[in-house]
Amino acid sequence: MSEIRVTDKRMFTPDGRLREEYAREIDAAADAADDPASPPAPEVASEPAAGAPVAEPQLPPQTAAPPLELPGTPPGLGGPSFVDLIAVLAEPASLYLGELELPDGQSAENLEMARLHIDLLDLLRQRTAGNVTAQERAVLEDVLYRLRLRYVQKRG
C-alpha cells in the first residue's frame, strides 16, 4: 500500500500572511525583473520520476488592471477611491439607524441591520490593516466610531 502525502499549497497562512516560500519566489522574480541585462531563465522540461508529484504549470505574472473609467466622469478625477467604498458601506447603516428617511417619508429603523453594516465596516478595517494610507485608516475609524456611538445611543 502506498503512502499518501498531503502538502498545503495555499499561498497564505490562516492568519493572512504570505508563506515564506512564496515570498522568496516573489522577491527572486522582482530581482530578476529589475536586472535587464540578465537573460530569462531557460525552461527545463523533464519527465517526472514515477510516483513523484507533478508540478503545476506556472501562470504568467498578472499586470495591474487599468483604472475603471466611469461614464460622465471628468478627465483626471480617476475612479472610485477607498473613501468612496467606506461611504457606500456606511450609508445603509445610517438608513437602518433611522437617520435617513425613505422616499415615502417613513423610517427604515432596524438596529440589527444597522449592526450588520457596522460589523461589515469593522471587517473591512481589520482586513485592510497595513494596506491603507493613514488618511484612509483615519476616515474609516472615524466613520466606525460615529456609527457605533449612534448605534449605542439608539440601543439605549
Provide a descriptive summary of the structure in words:
The protein has a domain at 82-155. 44% of the residues lie in helices and 0% in strands. The protein has helices at residues 20-34, 82-96, 111-127, 134-155. Helix 2 runs antiparallel to helix 3 (111-127), helix 2 runs parallel beside helix 4 and helix 3 runs antiparallel to helix 4. The protein is extended and about 65 Å long.
Architecture blueprint of SSEs:
Elements: H1 20-34, H2 82-96, H3 111-127, H4 134-155
Shape, per Cα inertia axes: extended
Give the radius of gyration.
24 Å
Q: Note the gap between the termini.
A: 65 Å
Residues in helices, as a percent range? 40-55%
Poorly predicted parts: none
Query: Mean pLDDT, rounded to whole units?
Result: 76
Find the count of extended strands (DSSP E, 2+ residues).
Answer: 0
Largest sheet, in brief, is:
none
| Structural class by secondary-structure content | mainly alpha
Labels describing this entry:
156 residues, mainly alpha, 4 helices
Characterize this entry briefly.
By secondary structure, the protein is mainly alpha-helical. It is 44% helix and 0% strand.
